[in-house]
Amino acid sequence: MVTERLSPIWVDGTLRPADAPVLRADDSAYCEARGCYTAVRVRAGAPRFAERHIARLVRGARALGLPAPDPHLLRRALRELAAAFFGGEGVVRLSLSRDGAGALHVVGVPRELGDDPPAWRAVTAPFPHPGAPLAGGHKLTHRLLPALALDAARSAGADEALLFDAAGHLVEGARTNIVALGADGEICTPPTERGAVAGIALEVAGERLPALRRRDLSRRDLLAVRGVAAINAVRGARALVSLDGTDLGPESSALAAHLAAVLDHD
Fold first, then answer.
1. Which terminus of the chain faces fewer neighbouring Cβ atoms within 10 Å, N or C?
2. Where residue 266 falls among pLDDT bands split at 50, 70, 90?
């Protein structure tokens, strides 16, 4: 009998078997959805944008009232989990929460990249984006609606779901930030106040592309722009070629390639 090899997980400084018990029943992420996380791309055996991911976790812990994490411990978690990937490619999910006694817990879970097509199809999420539950764009373990939106996309044979607020403004993708190339040639993304997660890839793009502007986009606007791309720190940039079965702008692939080049180095 062939036994499938499970990658180890990382719990509070120790590598453990993937099927080992991890959390207490009174863990805050489980009981209160009080937790934060980040998803880190591992490329050639090294975690990409590691310091940015660590800073995100420190900010998230502060906003949630969790004990302050030790950045050195977080670096070690990323380094040790990155080394566990066969072939040096994958993703690490690093999360923070606290137990009922108030102690911080750091859990790292590696996974393979999975399917990674260069162009994605999207659908509109079947419910409105409610706005951020906490100001600051933190990546929270409380992510039921994005998860359900992504389920809807996959059921429709699509790769991403776009979430609009009740007024029809684009907020974000279920797992990405959205960037558009307007008819006027301006590269834009929704305003921060709409409530999207402050993605690492969007942070980097904003620093390296001074021309990137914040402006509202409706579904009608997306159908009229020259190109649309989805970006995050795991996938980089992917062209969005259709929305609800309608083709998006002809320059989506060129926009995604441009953003991918911007995100290519740490």
1. N
2. confident
